[in-house]
Amino acid sequence: MKCRKCRQKAIIYMPEHRLALCQQCYAPWFLEHTERTIKKFNMFTRRDRVLVAVSGGKDSLALWHALTELSYDADGLYIDLGIDGGFGYSEKSKQACMKLAERLHRTLHTVSVAEEVGASVPEIKELTRRVACSGCGLVKRYFMNRMSLEADYDVIATGHNLDDEAAVLFANTLRWDEEYLARQYPVLEERDGLRKKVKPFVYFTEKQTTVYALVNHIRYVREECPFAVGATSLYHKGMLNELEHHSPGTKRRFLDGFFRVRERFSAPEQSKLTPCQKCGQPTTAEVCAYCRLVDHVHRRQATHSVA
Ligand code: AMP
Ligand code: ZN
Questions:
Q1: Ligand index nearest the alpha carbon of residue 288
Q2: Atom 9 of ligand 1 has which residue's CA nearest to it?
Q3: Residue 20 lies in a domain
């Protein structure tokens, strides 16, 4: 197959766009589409300081690279979850983020959950008997927001792609979870101490972000988080890929169609956010969920060491 722009040998065919591109023409196409999404949703401008939450995976590292190529003022934040999984998952991920930071000549902020909480994500899971992902999601959201406020960033960007967003939409729709549906959007505006959050890659498939990472020689961690293996979201992604295979463009139409009707789902009256009495971060309670988690972990650790 030949590249539509220059007739060289194509490296990717995107049936949903009926478009084949070569090694040279792919990155410019990808960057142009990134820019389009940023503009379409008014995500940020070149005057804003952007904090890219980087996990060490292909999507978020590709995002940091792409924003830098597009001359946005983008630094990275890596949250070290302390997950080993038999292959040093968190350590490898951190190394991948540090490598890219060096190459881009950009700042990478790092936060260690083990240092901040006094327990890593797997330890939190054991001590609280929560599913790993719920504690993990909570600490990630917390540190993204806290770091963006402390280091004065205007907006937080994450690497969620079309496959992620379509799978979440699918799950929310299966449950007709109106509250989640009302909140699922590539831009969440700033409010009461919660920074603006954006997903500039919502329209890119996993294949597209992977190819962008590959043509730019970005070294990323291929393994999934060991706790995510077997997750329902992976099963949903597989089903959506089957639909996509039969009818290219299904994932994009599913998501875009939803964005058009989304306002019909009314979010419940949002409770007012006030500063947490312990840490000052916004919360609907007196003490935020993160501080309550830290307290819980510390109490459990104390009883464990006594026993
Ligand atoms: P996930 O929930 O693992 O699919 O990740 C979704 C997005 O959250 C990624 O694209 C990153 O932008 C961000 N993210 C995930 N894990 C981390 C981490 N350990 N540190 C910083 N950002 C992360
Ligand atoms: Zn707090």
A1: 2
A2: 159
A3: no
Atom 18 of ligand 1: nearest residue by CA position: 55
Which phi and psi angles does 134 have, rounded to 5°? -75, -45
CA distances 101 to 38, 98, 109, 223, Å, are 22, 5, 10, 20
Q: Which ligand is nearest to the CA of 289?
A: 2
| Averaged pLDDT for residues 287-296 | 96
pLDDT tens-digit series, residues 151-163: 999 999 999 999 9
pLDDT digits (tens, 9 = 90+) for 265-278: 877 777 889 999 99
| H or E, element range at 166 | helix 162-174
Share of the chain above pLDDT 70, in %: 99
Ligand 1 atom with minimal separation from the 59 CA:
10
Q: Cβ of 150: how many Cβ atoms within 10 Å?
A: 10
For residue 284, being part of any structural domain is answered with no
Backbone phi, psi, residue 80, to 5°: -80, 110
How many residues make up the chain in this entry? 307
Question: How many independent structural domains does the chain possess?
Answer: 1
Enclosing domain of residue 66: 42-272
In a domain, 181, yes or no: yes
Query: How many angstroms is it from 51 CA to the middle of ligand 2?
Result: 21
Which residue minimizes the CA distance to atom 15 of ligand 1? Answer: 55
Q: Find the 46 Cα to ligand 1 centroid distance in Å.
A: 23
**Within-domain flag for 29:** no
CB 53, CB 158: distance < 8 Å: yes
What is the position in ligand 1's atom list of the atom closest to the CA of 52? 12
Q: pLDDT higher for 232 or 122?
A: 122
Binding-site residues, ligand 1, Cβ < 6 A:
53-55, 59-60, 77-79, 81, 140, 158-160, 164
Q: What is the CATH number of the domain that holds 227?
A: 3.40.50.620
